[in-house]
Amino acid sequence: MTTALIELKNVAKSFKGNDGIARLVLEGVDFRLDKGEIVALLGQSGSGKSTLLRIMAGLIAADGGDALYRGQPLFGPAEGIAMVFQSFALFPWLTVQQNVELGLEARGIATGPREKRALAAIELIGLAGFEGALPRELSGGMRQRVGLARALVMEPAVLLMDEAFSALDVLTGERLRNEILQLWGSGQMPTQAMLVVSHNIEEAVMMADRVLIFSSNPGRVRAELPINLPRPRHSDSAEVRLLIDEIYGLMTAGAAPAGQASRAHLSDRLPEADVGRMESLLELLAEDQFKGRADLPKLAEESGLTDAALLPLADALSRLGLAQLEQGDFLITPLGQRYVEGEHEFRREIFGQQLLAHVPMAAFIRHSLEQEAQGELREESFLKMLRDSMDAHEAERVLRVVIEWARYGEVFEYNYHTGMIHLPESGEA
Fold first, then answer.
1. DSSP 21-50
2. Do 329 and 295 form a contact (C-beta atoms < 8 A)?
3. 193, 245, 298, 331: most buried by Cβ count inside 10 Å?
């Protein structure tokens, strides 16, 4: 087997939180990127995908395992690896050409050759005539093209793309993605391999030769799916839709099945799911067009939700036993059907019951409050417990989700002025 362009062997990475405790972000990551392939990496927010890319780019070091470029250890940024960021990361006071030239200037390339290469890269990505423009004068799609030109001007063997299209509107992102694929297919790009981190399942299927699915807490590769379709691919073709369905199924396979969430640890990382959006999704699922069972890609299309927004909602409804995930399909449960048909107060009652049954932290807080004479406790005591297994930001996020769900289900209340969690007033529970 030929030497991989990038290879990771048992890579691990930890970060210290504000409390000084190191927490594992990546563990046991094995990965190989070969010449001539595009690989897409999918996973939930916070799964460590961006951290992994930064290790590959040589921007940060792994704590364990080996990160290799062309068979040699990475001890810092490698000349053959370039990265395109979600945020564009342009210097606002520099022109398009000056932004593109930055990397070449840092390498000590003389002015003449530097300008020639920058102009060629700008023309390649379709921005000829805008060399003297400032970033504020460009649209989002044009700014991302500048970021792409800044990477390509370095003539990298490996191009890493970290959510490069997610800050763009759908049509602009799709257009830029297709243009990159055309450049790749024509051989005009100097790049020999690409790794694309994305939240968008369709984007991954349209671009990649392989799709890797990342698990969370800690991050590791838990599934791999080859894409053996010729390019260009058509998003509405049966083959593409079948692959999208399969990836939805793989990505939702780890969601907590109804009736099993009660066995989870108190520090379970709950999905970011708004109660109102959960109800809207459940109502849509119950409508005549779906009759209680929907293909997840179709549900995403009808609801107007992105994959990044839909999957946490589906996870939350599954945890609460109101719906269930089954190989890429989303099914309403009998309890979920009763929930949809019920009035507001009946819905809140069911929500509260399911919350206590399936979310251990909510049940623990309720029990703790019942043991207190005043029926109230400071949120800090629960935050400290969560910080034992996650960083401070994640602990605050998880507790915020628990409080939001509990307030709707009338399990307990929260005073935003004092930071006190308390039992509902008499008659509310």
1. -EEEEEEEEEEEE-TT-EEEEE--TTSSHH
2. yes
3. 193
Q: Which structure tokens are listed for 145?
A: 């093209």
Q: What is the CATH number of the domain that holds 408?
A: 1.10.10.10
32 and 180 assigned to the same domain: yes
Closest CA to 84 of 226, 188, 198, 170: 198
Q: What's the sign of the alpha-carbon dihedral 288, 292, 298, 300? A: positive
Closest of 93, 310, 45, 61 to residue 198, by C-alpha: 45
* Pairing status of strand 38-42 against strand 193-198: parallel
Strands 329-332 and 293-295: antiparallel
Task: Let me know whether 151 and 66 are in one domain.
Answer: yes
Q: What is the dihedral of CA 203, 208, 210, 212, to 10 degrees?
A: -40
Residues β-bridged to residue 159: 82, 194
Describe the chain by its helix, strand, coil percentages, rounded to 5.
45, 20, 35
Single pTM value for the model: 0.70
pLDDT tens for 342-396 read 999 999 999 999 998 888 889 889 988 888 888 889 999 888 888 877 778 888 9
Residue 262 lies in a domain: no
Beta strand pairing call for 22-33 and 6-16 = antiparallel
**Together in a domain, 230 and 307:** no
Element (H, E) at 243: helix 238-252
| Number of C-beta neighbours around residue 10 at 10 A | 12
**Within a domain: 263:** no
**Contact at 8 Å (CB) between 266 and 361?**
yes
What per-residue confidence (pLDDT) applies to 2? 66
- Per the structure block, which two tokens stand in for 163? 């959510």
Q: Are residues 246 and 280 in the same domain?
A: no
CATH label of the domain that carries residue 175? 3.40.50.300
Kindly give, in sequence order, each residue whose CB lies less than 8 Å from that of residue 67, ignoring residues fewer than 6 positions away.
Answer: 6, 7, 8, 11, 55, 56, 58, 61, 73, 74
Instruction: State which residues form the domain around 82.
Output: 6-250
Task: With respect to residue 255, please indicate whether it lies within any of the assigned structural domains.
Answer: no
Same domain, 412 and 339: yes
**Total domains, the chain:** 2
Kindly state whether residues 140 and 178 are assigned to the same domain: yes
- 51 CB burial (10 A radius; 0-12, 13-18, 19+): buried
Q: Are residues 244 and 295 part of one domain?
A: no
Give the bridge partners for 323, in sequence order. Answer: 332
pLDDT of residue 255: 47
Are 395 and 25 in contact by the 8 Å Cβ rule? The answer is: no
